[in-house]
Amino acid sequence: MKILFVYTDINVRGGALSYHFGVGQLSAVLKQHGHDVRLLHMFGKLDIDALKQSLTQFDPGIVAFTVVYPQFRFVKRIIETLRPWNAFVLAGGPHFTVKPDSVAEIEGLDAVCIGEGEYAMLDLAAALEREEPVRGIHNLWVRHKDGSVTKNPTRPFIENLDELPFYDREICDYQAIIDSDFQTATFQFGRGCPFSCTYCSNHVIRDAQAGPYVRFRSVDAALEEIGAVTSRYKVKYLYLNDDTFMVKKSFFEEFCRRYRERFSFPFFVNGRPEQITPEVCQLLKEAGCQRMTMGIEHGDEGFRNKVLRRRMSNDQIVRAFELCRAAGFKTKSHNLVGLPYETPELHMETVRLNSRILPDSFNLHIFEPYPGTTLGDVCWKEGLVDPKREDAEFVGQTDTILKMPQFPREQILKCFRRFAFRVYRKHSLLKAIPYYVYYSRYGEFLVRLLQPVKRFIRKAAMGV
Predict the structure, then answer these.
(1) Element housing 271 (H / E)
(2) Calpha distance 118→106 (Å, rounded)
(3) Which one of 40, 160, 268, 345 is CB 3.0 to 4.6 Å from 291, fit for a cystine?
(4) How far apart are CA 383 and CA 204, in angstroms?
(5) Among positive and negative, which fits the CA dihedral 336, 337, 338, 341?
(6) 180-194, pLDDT tens digit by residue?
(7) What ranges do the domains of the chain cover?
């Protein structure tokens, strides 16, 4: 069976190219069972002609879209523009797992996949090849010609991740992805997150299937995959991009002990402030860690705990950054602005906390409400979503679709654009000014214009 994956990255902020681990895993499983798999990555803009060309040249039996909510409207436009299809049209990803009834919103969509799709796609491909009905495949909601939908149950989560092949990186130009991020290869060794942040889909996805949600490959498999990737591609750094890399203590400690025995590549990890201890930092330092990224999201302790359900204190956050800095790590913080119930005054607490910890770099995103999540549903139930802006054309996470009297859009944009300057101006203009330009209304254009010298700009602003 020929299968074409379509991965849309439309109206996203420029910078490093992205590798989609979900598609990479599905492709690896399908190829292992003899299927012919291709990928079309729509980066930057909607390109119907590129998809038409792929359909003509490849002639797939299945076209599969992976969807997060900000990309839903683009995928809907693609599917409805090209209907009727000669292929079976499937969509999956976080959006359809948390809101599977969206299947009824797209004319021409044959089914959606809820949760993990490896074995559902194998069953689908086999059934289509044998020209058998597909209505009974677990994890799929199948839409019929009369508009009715068969809502199949889900199978349990895949408990032993070592039974899966390594991610298929040959489905794309993976060297180009590495090179776009300063020769950094990215890895994910686990699945699932035990935390329940209200703006994230994990607290919904964990209930979509039965069984343990947080799982990791074995350390043997993790090290073997690193060896396979670094022997095939030109790599300088590794980014171990699990959201919860340190949540399984046995995996984390064994990995740190054994990694240095085989590899000397510096690596970056994500952590949570409450996970950071002197012992954790020492293990990471001895293994070769160079950067720690942690989510702050909001600087007001009460707001962060109540609205975002991130139950950590500001003192914990400050202490975590101090420990990482003492260990010699570069630090990076993640932050949000434009949240429900937020005000400009509350946002300044995020500025103050970042000024206090002074991360080497940061990300600031304007909040996007994801339907089906706790905080996303609040936005729709309380009428905070502005229908005039829901389909507005803008670069994701740089504008808002919310209409909040206490925090108008103009104020959200002002806070977004001035955040970096406010954080760093008293400490380092060398950081403050490049960030101010990057987050300005012209930042996206300048990022693309300055691609040839971005390494030097990054070094000046981030120290990496």
Answers:
(1) strand 267-271
(2) 23
(3) 268
(4) 22
(5) positive
(6) 999 999 999 999 999
(7) 2-144, 182-462
Tell me the pLDDT band of 436, cut-offs 50, 70 and 90: confident
CA distances from 269 to 23, 149, 201, 276, 351 (A): 22, 42, 21, 12, 24
pLDDT the model gives residue 399: 95
Type of residue numbered 167 = Y
CATH 3.30.1330.60, applies to 182-462:
no
Question: Is the CB of residue 202 less than 8 Å from the CB of residue 115?
Answer: no
- CATH homologous superfamily for the domain 2-144: Response regulator (3.40.50.2300)
Taking only the tens place, the pLDDT of each residue in 206-243 is 999 999 999 999 999 999 999 999 999 999 999 999 98
How many Å apart are CA 246 and CA 367, to the nearest integer? 26
pLDDT number for residue 431: 84
> What pLDDT is attached to residue 445?
65
Cβ atoms within 10 Å of 38's Cβ, excluding its own: 16
Mean pLDDT (whole number) for 426-437: 85
| Phi, psi angle pair for 246, to nearest 5° | -100, 5
Rounded Cα gap, residues 17 and 276, in angstroms:
30
pTM score, whole prediction: 0.93
In order, the DSSP letters of 293-344 are EEEEE-S-HHHHHHHS-----HHHHHHHHHHHHHTT-EEEEEEEES-TT--H
CA-based max dimension of the chain: 68
